[in-house]
Amino acid sequence: MCSIKCRLLLRRLCCHRSSRFSTTAAKFSLPRGKNAEDLTPGAGPPPAPDAARAHEAAVRRLAAAGDVDGVQLALQEMRLRGVPCTEGALVAAIGAFARAGAPDRALKTFYRAVHDLGCARPTAPRLYNHLIDALLRENMVAAVVPVYENMKKDGVQPNVFTYNLLVKALCQNDRVEAARKMLDEMARKGCSPDDVTHATIVSALCKHGRVDEAREVLAVAPPVCASYNAVVLALCREFRMQDVFLIVEEMVQRGLQPTVITYTTIVDAFCKAGEMRMAFAILARMVVTGCTPNVATFTALVKGLFDCGSVHDALGMWKWMVAEGWAPSTVSYNVLIRGLCSIDDLKGALSVLNGMGQHDDCFPNVRTYSTLIDSFSKAGDLDGAISIWNDMTAAGCKPNVVVYTNMVDVFCKMLMFDQAENLIDKMIFENCPPNAVTFNTLIRSLCDCGRVGRALGVFHEMRRHGCPPNDRTYNELLHGLFRDGNREDALQLVIGMQNHGMELSLVTYNTVVSGLCQMKMSREAVLFLGRMIVQGIRPDAFTFNAMIHAYCKEGKIRMAAWMLGRMKAANCPRNIVAYTILMAELCNQHRLEDAMVYLLKMLYEGIYPNIATWNVLVRGAFRNLGCIGTIQLIQHITTDLSAGTCEQS
């Protein structure tokens, strides 16, 4: 409505200008010997100051209404009517373009201001500041530099607001040192930094993990809560709580009182560390000093209690928070829903979802739906996950890559691979590019179902969509190829992986070694084991277990025993799996006495048998000793085990 009124005002102004020209025609006649076409635009009587002010008012109203096209039209009308553009009108126009996300239009308008729009050349930094701010909103830092240079060429001295914008621009682009040098330039120009200047630099240093340098800047800067809060947050992320308390003490000594942000940051840090007693102690301190907690404080406590497994206390804290009048935010609801999902109370989580927005004017966001979809999927309720997805799209909430990936996983679990691929195509169409996790989810599911050929097709599509495969992608495919007995393609994939500059990781080597062992190709597996050691990757228990199992399957019991001995030499602790595999093969070869030797050796190393171990020994004993002998053997072993346990205790 405001935009329409402003356009009507422009039309009235145009009519007003026409009538003024007609009534003054006698006073301002054309020069003799010249045609009207020879006159420059806007030639004639000088426009009244009232017209400029009226046009400025119209531009301001259009800018406030967000009508950028109307603003452009108004500026064009001023040019055609010869009304000079005032600085106020230009500032309003640049602000409108900035809010509309069109800094390029703001820049063009600025450069046209003097020559085309009749705007007086700026002598104060106000106009430049608004333009720089507009450019920084869209992170167009490259365009800021020439604007600043033109500003200096025009003899306009930057003020503290200009410098703050430049410091912000440098910090946004990780040029913190250049931002700190800007303080020296300010000193040379006699422009004292203000609270915003120091706070911006301190925050940037903390963001890059340079907390100690931030504290140095903090010590010489005027005390500001925002700067101290930035340092407290950085220290809490590193859980340097002793330093946090020193910073808070320094705040008080310099005349600042910790704010609710300060206390909530500390409470959240203790909650994340699982130290709930300290978190509640800080809450008590907060109340004693007269600082009222807010919903973020209680949300951090609820989350901490859920993470510690204190579900009853978490729900009690939530109910108390609501009863005392703190209205939960969307973040608070997300914490509650996540907590309920973590204890498999999906019905309760759905109840909370349905309650959002009914009383608190608080609506679910993409994280809310993502948590629910993932939880329903993990619980095996795939229909429930699809129902949440439908609710999300019906509510107009745009999915992000996490939600899309969760839904791809849901479709894969339901063996609906066509729908999963269609969803990936939709992601690309909706300008939400799938990432490696999305593709890996589909590839893993296809390989698990034996559809390795189709998985390879998805693999080749990844690069076309601008998503290079990672080592997880290759490992899933290698696992699928080896399970299908396709050794040639698997080894070719390893070569392709190296050709793309990817180093083979421990997981990749283990996948190849395990795959070769499953195909009873222990010689080739040993070669890969050697390459692994040469590359400086230490084999783990999985590697040795795979090799021991391979030798046992081939009946090479001595090689399996040798490999078990090599585990200690490779600084890899022997485990119950390795011993059980070896004892199983010894029993299969009717070598029960040798199996018992390894049982005693295992017990000597402090490794106690599990159900699988006992099953192996009982079956072997029955085959070799019969029923009575087996019972006597088990009684003897259990007696020895009990005696050993008593001695240790």
Automatic annotation (TrEMBL):
InterPro entries assigned to the protein according to its UniProt record, in alphabetical order: PPR_rpt, TPR-like_helical_dom_sf
The PPR repeat ranges on this chain: 124-158, 159-193, 224-258, 259-293, 294-328, 365-399, 400-434, 435-469, 470-504, 505-539, 540-574, 575-609
Pfam annotation, one family: PPR_1
Region listing for Disordered, in residue ranges: 32-51
Gene3D superfamilies referenced in this protein's UniProt entry, alphabetically: Tetratricopeptide repeat domain (1.25.40.10)
Keyword terms: Repeat, Transit peptide
Signal peptide: none
Family statement: Belongs to the PPR family. P subfamily.
Name of the molecule in the record: Pentatricopeptide repeat-containing protein
Upper lineage: Eukaryota, Viridiplantae, Streptophyta, Embryophyta, Tracheophyta
